[in-house]
Amino acid sequence: MIILFLFNYKKIFSIFSLPQTYKIENHYERVFIKRDGVILFNEDIVYSPYEGKVKYFYRDGDKVKKNSLVALITSNEGEFKFYSNSVGIFSLKFDELDFKNEISFDLKSLKEKLNKFKILHDGDMIKIGDPIFKIIDNLYSFVIFENDETLKNFLNSDIVYLKNIENGEIFKGEIVEKGEFIKVKFNKFIEYYLDERIYPFEILIYEGDLIKIKDSFIKNNGFDIKGDFKTRFISIEKFKFIKSGDYFIFPKIDENKPLFDLLGKEIIK
Asked: Is the distance from CB of 163 to CB of 32 less than 8 angstroms?
């Protein structure tokens, strides 16, 4: 009996122990959620009207001024010079998004395609109609997010704040389109997003009073409130919440007011 107890004391103790509880408390916090975003540049792509060998006077990623001599194509008909039509970042990388006018795709299916660039080099043979280079506007760009349920519920303003994963700095963006996708215009850290198309962002989804409940206390889309003589089940189906890590987060909005009336109560696990 003693040996059996020693090997099973945790199970035996848990059976006879009191149920765990979690107090409903008010917190003031910023809530970020991580989402993949697709970068869309404001860019000017230059195509070749000639066939021949190309020579470049700038490297990929260099900043160029307007009317700078950036490329030269040598063909059987002679040499043809190309100048930049605008100020920006000189780029020799191309993928299928460079030639799309509309966003109508599944982000997941694009992850492999979009990060496989066609990169041009000095001495490459260029055909008629091929892109030669592009100038990316370094003053502003766009990022596209899938408009999921959480974003629909909590992004109610045209202004959104994004956290740069590289350095943790928070910067402001402007929502310019909203539908199946959310298109956000931003004007910082554009140089960070030149090497790939899909990046993880942290989006500030809510700042203010909120209630956090550990997911281990949620069962059957709700939780049990401890009463004086009996428990009461509270369904969360009508509340608006954010799932983040090990917590269900309920911001202080009109839909969640009944939950805030329960401050100080204890949830039974």
From this structure: yes
Rg of the chain taking only CA atoms, in angstroms: 28
Domain-embedded: residue 4 = no
Strand partners, 23: 266
Q: Does the pLDDT value for residue 138 go beyond 50? A: yes
* CB < 8 Å & 24+ apart, contacts of 151-156: 151/35, 151/182, 151/203, 151/205, 153/240, 154/205, 154/206, 154/240, 154/242, 154/251, 155/182, 155/203, 155/205
Domain range for residue 236? 14-32+207-268
Could you tell me if residue 26 is inside a domain? yes
pLDDT at 16 over 60: no
Does residue 263 lie in a domain region? yes
pTM: 0.80
- Total domains, the chain: 1
pLDDT in tens, 77-134: 899 999 999 999 999 999 888 876 555 556 666 666 666 678 999 999 999 999 999 9
Report if residue 80 sits inside a domain: no
C-alpha 163/C-alpha 233 separation (Å) is 38
User: Does residue 74 surpass a pLDDT of 50?
Assistant: yes
